Please model this.
Amino acid sequence: MADIATPAGAPASVPRKTVRPRGAALDPIFGFICGAAATALLSALALVLGSLLIGGMPAFQKAGLSFFTSTSWNPVTEVYGGAGPIIGTLITSALALILALPVAFCVAVFLTEFCPRVLRRPVGIAVELLAGVPSIVYGMWGLFVFAPAFAKWVELPLMTAAPSGSIWETIVSGVPNGSGILAASIILAIMILPYIAATLRELFLTVPPKVRESAYGVGCTPLEVVWSVTLPYVSRSAVGAVMLGLGRALGETMAVTFVIGNSHRLPQGIFDSGSTIASTIANEFAEATSPEHSAALVALGLVLFLITFIVLAIARALLGTERHKG
Amino acid sequence: MSGLLGRRARRSAANAAFIGACTLATIIAVGVLAAILVSLLHEGLGGLNAAVFTKSTPAPGSDGGLANAIVGSIMLCGVAMLIAVVVGILAGTWLAEYGRESAYAKLVRFVNDVLLSAPSILIGLFVWEIAVKPVGGFSGFAGSLALALLAAPVVTRTTEDVLKLQARQLRESGIALGTPMWITIRQILWKAASGGIVTGALLAFARISGETAPLLFTSLNNQFFSWNLTKPMASLPVVIFNYALSAYDDWRRLAWVGALLIAVAVLAINILVRALAQESRPSR
Amino acid sequence: MSKIVATALALVVTAAAGVALADISGAGATFPAPLYQKWAETYRAQTRVGLNYQAIGSGGGIKQIKAKTVDFGASDKPLKPEELKASSLVQFPTVVGGVVPVTNLPNITSDQLHLTGGVLADIYLGKIKRWNDPAIANLNKGLPLPGLPITVVHRADGSGTSFLFTTYLSMKNPQWAKQVGGSDAVEWPAGQGGKGNDGVAALVRQTPGAIGYVEFSYIQNNKMDAIDLVNRDGVLVKPEEGAFAQAAAKADWAHAPGYYILLLDQPGKGAWPITGATFILMYRQQTGPSGTEVLKFFDWAYKSGDQQAQALSYVPLPLAVKNQVRGSWKQITLNGKPVL
Model:
């Protein structure tokens, strides 16, 4: 704390007194407590990663690289290849993002540009409420309500319409009961939609009105304003926000496991079954009694963590410097 | 001249299509929400009665409700939020006021984000390893710990964001008056940011109230009514999980009722959060 | 601020104080969970002792009892005598139930479709791809089998039900035994996985041309179409409580160490081929009073729980077997003395 020094120009013989604010002695303690809390978070993650590493190492050691390349997941012979769940995770998350992003973008634009003022708050709440629905409800709704409708209106027509023997037949191959890679991706897309939409809307609102108005002033249509002015202004942060949504999609368990069909083989078509890392762990961990099986599941968990890590590192790099502008 | 008209027409058409697309997207989003809510109401409302709040989870064929699960969820989330709020506010304060842009602070921020997106089932497994197995039993405290690990990063993140938004003058006014930093933080900054901090806490609560996976191996579940956090404890998400996939109609109905209760609670919290945020934010 | 602290302290104190009942905890198989919970509810009303049983899967039950986080574990998959000895566990059966294959075919109702174990395994191997395949048609003369492709549905999660089903297939089909084997989680050669019995039931119900397998209680509640099987004696059997009881009756419980018996493919004219008992696992040497309470509970269940079991479609053990089990409880000791 600052010394209240003698005023400049005073004679040197005036005794100096260092005055400290009352209670300043507690400052370092408070700072320490805060730092301890921050470090607690750090150690929590370190411990989680450490325990995953310890638990999963035997699986990596036993399988080697084949853990990442083999789709043979056999608890009877204790041979575990995680390619099925890993690729399933990547495919469903990527598909979910491809489906959610345009819709979320359009919703965010609607809320900031076109929405009548009186509807703004309720529609905003409605979109955010999608984020609040517990994931198990998504699973139940997905299996009992969405899947039959999806089968009837999308899968069956497409599968019967595909010309036999063509590439289309392979693409839409699978089981026409509403469970599969595409169904799971759609449910995931619905789940990450509110996060991306809400974040994009907040970002769009940070664009200074002057910038937008100047674009309108030269005669741009709203489409052109959004595309050429608003979006480039927030592009780096927007990509980061999208990646955060992706991070959520990667870890989603309950909703996916109900509708993905849970097969460890690589899916051959969009209606075929697959599995994700999170759903595999959720399905099999409770029953996994052999040490190898448990280790393989923990190893899958570690891979998931690493994928999340990478996605977030990219998001951080893009999002890091854009926050709190203005 | 005609070329300019043609271009304008095209631009107008593109714009009209864009407006159409945006409206359609919003209708889809709201429509999906409506579909889910309709399902919830249709399946759950029929089973909603006083017994749900007064009786505990039944065996199949018996009369019962969700009282133990509701109380259990509130207790588990309550203790979890207690831990998360304390750790989160302190950590967020450290990041905003002490660590700022130092390398260590950047690391903590990154770690916080990773924890924020951590798959909840892995957190549950981790807590099983450290708080269930060595102790020799499932407990509500273990469940709360797992939930706290999921909620604390949310509180940390929002606290830091909100504190950073506070004007520098606030801090400087504190220093100018000669108050120690910790009083400045407590009396001035935290008070000013209280709306945002509460928002963060409520968001964290909404997040953990629906989490199933971390509770499966920590607090397990309890068939009976219990206040005891050192033993297995019932919770709504786990009960829903068990009942939804059962063979019994009365159990399945209770599962939907539970789902409806969680959704309603989250909606209420959402509206509360918005109302609080409106109050503390200057009107746009 | 101080108000919040005070409330928090009050909450924690209340929480820790708790209700001091003799609470016992068990976890494991999903199959008997509804029954154990029903028994627990009635038992508590009579004795104030709360037994909290949670279904986390047979493997989960084994894992948790080995980790000593519960007072007893429950498993549909019995541990072999060597494993019991190695972990110092005692094992005994409680009730019997059946696993039933189900299907969803247009114009075909429950019990109309007949299969053998070998053909069932071939279907699950993916070798038989359509319903009007000769292998199926030969067993079902006169039945209008459609040309629909067969959609195989199995369990996504590890399960005692899967253990019974796949072990039965291994017994009836050498190729299945070699390629896949019998366990609670296997590498399924074909088909989709549903989560839990209900997940399988939902997938089968939603897919014309599907085949799956579920516990017996799911058939009535979900109105599924059961498939009748040809048993060891060559007789076509309908899945029902009587058929399960017959399969259990002939088993030689007295001479099975650790009661390790698989009630699969049992001899008997009316015996259902995919029957199984469900087991309890406890430590031979107890360290506290919970062992006594657990045995008192199951003693009560043997005496008075049969009616509730039958109401929920479980098959109680024959009285002779129950008495044998009671005799074997003497090996569970606390400080050297049998607990019951």
Observations:
- DSSP finds twelve helices and no strands in chain B.
- Chain B touches chain A through 90 residues (CB under 8 Å).
- Chain B has a mean pLDDT of 83.
